[in-house]
Queue: 3 jobs
Job 1
Amino acid sequence: MTRSELIELLSIDDPKALQRLFARTQVVQSSVVGTKVFLRGLIEYSNRCRKNCYYCGIRGGNRRVGRYELTDGEVLQAVDFAWRNRYGSIVLQSGERQSARFVSRIARLLRQIKEHTHGEVGITLSCGEQPDEVYRQWFEAGAHRYLLRIETASPALYARLHPATPAHDFDARITALHQLKAIGYRTGTGVMIGLPFQTPGDLADDLLFFRRMDVAMVGMGPYLEHRDTPLYRYKDRLLPPAQRLTLALKMVAALRLLMPHINIAATTALQALHPTGREQALQAGANVFMPNLTPVEYRASYRLYDSKPCLHESPGLCMDCTACRIRLAGNEIGYGEWGDR
Ligand code: 5AD
Ligand code: SF4
Ligand code: FES
């Protein structure tokens, strides 16, 4: 598909035409990747962050957030839950931190997780930009996937969403993605959809970027407001929730057509816009679900946007709810599978 074809697809708004689009992606999905949905249990390890992205509720500059870091015991308990319930893998996510202590703690945890689960649970890291040697150290300790969203493939838009400091450099982010791939990580990236100043052309470029980078997985979701962030002042410029959701679903559908084999997450932010947002994404072409495994008492402190769902639901509840939702959407769960291609 060309850029202009993608733009055309993203501008479909006739309900019948949308249904036809999703029916088409369903055919591609079931014939290429099947109807299985893979589970990646999400552990929000720490909300400390050295960065100040203008959209994010846990940006370092937000003094209203109580900062936390899980203990080793809490992480291993969450991993044990995932393993016993045959989640194929877990995602260890945290704000961007670069202290030597943090780096070695993550490495130690990776080894403990591998040992505890006899290497059965796949581990994805999502801990921001790090020096190449840190990526290597974590890879050797057992992580095999890394998620680092580009946020937008447009350097101009990127610059409007981040402070102009070396820690928020677009080119450095691209370099990081290349490094991760070269080390051997199954590399994932992603963007936010419906950002202020974002155009349909930007979104088409995001999709083409995923293809050019030949990434193994993509997590993308709607941008959602957080009142304690600089971007909040543009809230009146955003698409209304229903349209923002539809745009996100069209992005999922377009990506499934563009890269039929890729893993696409039905992200939590979709659920924040609509109770069945993630199930709708499964029907539009997504095939990965990330149930939240963070202990309940920390969930509200890892709030990237105001409307974060499941703040008070336990991992067990989210698990049962997730299983129900996936079946209702007509899919089956790939229990115990890593789900790599
Ligand atoms: N709305 C939606 N997604 C957000 N993220 C951060 N802040 C927001 C927000 N306000 C996403 C970013 C980041 C990921 C961890 O969460 O894409 O990479
Ligand atoms: Fe930190 Fe990530 Fe939030 Fe940016 S988006 S402030 S790097 S947690
Ligand atoms: Fe958490 Fe439904 S996924 S309660």
Note: The mean pLDDT is 96.
Job 2
Amino acid sequence: MDLKGRHFLTLKDFTPEEIQYLIDLAAEYKRKKKEGIAVDTLRGKNVALIFEKTSTRTRCSFEVAAHDLGMGTTYLDPSSSQIGKKESIADTARVLGSMFEGIEYRGFEQSIVEELAKYAGVPVWNGLTNEYHPTQMLADFLTIQEIFGDLKGRKLAYMGDARYNMGNSLMIACTKMGMHFAAGAPKRYFPEADLVAQCQEYANASGGSILLTEDPMEAAKDADVIYTDVWVSMGEPDRVWEERIKDLTPYRVTTELMGAAKDTAIFLHCLPAFHDLKTKIGKEIKDRYGLNEMEVTDEVFESPQSKVFQEAENRMHTIKAIMAATLGA
Ligand code: CP
Ligand code: NVA
């Protein structure tokens, strides 16, 4: 499998075999990390990490993975670079592409990361846009594979805002890999019709399926994986909280909802999660709307079924695999 020189912008661009290869490569890197085996075959190379939105997992994963591979990193935050303010994306891409072997971008529209990829001349990796979060998918699927031993035929139920980066990306990833994707959400939070049609084609080829339903119990029924995400994503205005709480509270992941899934089901969340009052925003929402927890109850988040920290660790191993494969480690 040769992915050298490829961009990693959305899983739409990758075949099921390529996705499986990256997941297996990540498992191999994870084993080597645990065994203390050095993998610094990309010594002398450097990568630029552009973050127009905040991050804990993605930034740390790119930095640690790059360092493990022997590479240097430069982190560019929204306030300390010229990007988009004084310098266009196309010009930025040509400058960074002349100094770095690869570029990570986290930010807003998918068209921005596509523009970077068009002009950079080096691999560009999508570290989250409004539309997609493809590096998260590999971590999620490595976790599912570690726990169940396989992906094909498994059912993943996503609860909440299914038309944004996580819902879109999970629908793509599931249907590519022969899994059954269900979204439990009010109709206006369903993914866009064009993307659903495209994913239906992936499902036809892979043996997967898509179910979009307003009934949370129907979505969760017999699922192997129950998945949710924050109700308000980065970059969205504060004023949407009220309608999201009203619209999405019926889709909160509770012990009762987990009960509709298989006995062996696991809970995943890309994180960060609002499951208690130990965050600034969590406290503000409590003061404004009286909620103690949002998209997932603390009981489910802290239960043995919750594999969210295994999933978070897998961000690093999978991002390492993506950089290694596209840079030809
Ligand atoms: N899941 C995820 O992308 O986390 P960060 O926002 O912390 O990078
Ligand atoms: N939908 C969330 C995902 C965070 C990893 C966001 O975009 O903020």
Note: The mean pLDDT is 97.
Job 3
Amino acid sequence: MFDPDIYARRRVRLLAQMQHGIAIIPNALEQQRNADTDHPYRFDSSFHYLSGFSEPESVLVLVATKDNKPQSILFCREKDMEREIWDGFRYGPDAAQEKFGFDAAFSIAQLDEKLIELMGNQPALFYPLGASAAWDQRLLKLRCAVQEKARSGIKAPDELRDVRTLINEMRLFKDLHEINILRRAAAISTAAHKRAMQFTRPGQLEYQVEAELLHEFCRNGARDPAYTSIVAGGANACVLHYIANNAELHDGDLLLIDAGCELEGYASDITRTYPVNGRFMGAQRDVYQIVLASQAAAIAAAMPGASWEAPHNAALSILAQGFIDLKLCHGTVDGVLESESYKKYYMHRTGHWMGMDVHDVGDYKIGDQWRSLQAGMVLTVEPGCYIRPADDVPPALWNIGIRIEDDVVITGIGNEVLTGAAPKTVNEIEEVMRHE
Ligand code: GLY
Ligand code: MN
Ligand code: MN
């Protein structure tokens, strides 16, 4: 059931933080793919977070007035029976105002004229500063139009502020409504990874496994992936952003899958790595156990009060020791960490914020300090190891690429791993892949 109060409460919180001024939050544009075809439309996350509204060509305007009467106003497309025959339903301002609980709603065609009116005598103008050259230009031009009314005693805003500073900090802390959606998204992606494991056989193409993931997303109510799935067999797993997904899977190789669905505007982000033939072989098993242990250490370090760096550092210590044991790195753990020689095999960080965007908004540092983890934050924990062929690398390890990634919510007393049910230990994976 759609509950407009969830979004109204967020608008009130944002307005309270603005204190005074006007905020303009545009929705995303439609993007042409080619000829008469568009990319599937995806709303702007912050616009949706504050409105619950999804139609393109819409703008949210929030006015924090001095007399304590905050206003939220939607600008959206007019009803248009002719266009609706071709493109489908649109609310129109009246129905949108009623259903989504705005104080007022107008046609998007009236935006400029109304903004000149609304900006008058507002001390500050908040919008996503610099996010779009077109919006920068348009709003500065409208501000000029307000300035031209100076002789009638109307002042233009003289403070420009980036509204994202306030919204991003709100979005970093997920409320219960959001965590429930994230849990459901995680459950669908977990089922998809299981299905992929059961389907995988030597001789298949990577995108045939991808089809199984997408099928499971869709049939469970998640129409789109949160990002393009990475389905990378053998050496392709060492290409961090591999999305070609068109190679054949070979007996004896590993398959790395990084895939997650988007559900009701929220992402999930899981990576699992498993053998194409269902059985880990010698060196694969050794490297896998090291990455798995590093991930367990990182998850255990993702606690309220711990630094953002704690999970990364916990993973690094285990990986460094593992790389020494495998003869990939040399010397002591401290020496490997100090010289960063591990970066040849582990070149990314151990996670990122996750929410409406898979790489979600929110600062990682406050001043020059990594921020501390707190209840309601959601992050991924995703250590890995990618070994390309090289003279100084034992050949048995060549082309092994492994990443293990879960989605973690920080709670008041610890954490909740949303995606832990996706098979992860050697035994769990081999069990799920055992064919009759
Ligand atoms: N799937 C994107 C990431 O893992 O960061
Ligand atoms: Mn990730
Ligand atoms: Mn991922």
Note: The mean pLDDT is 97.
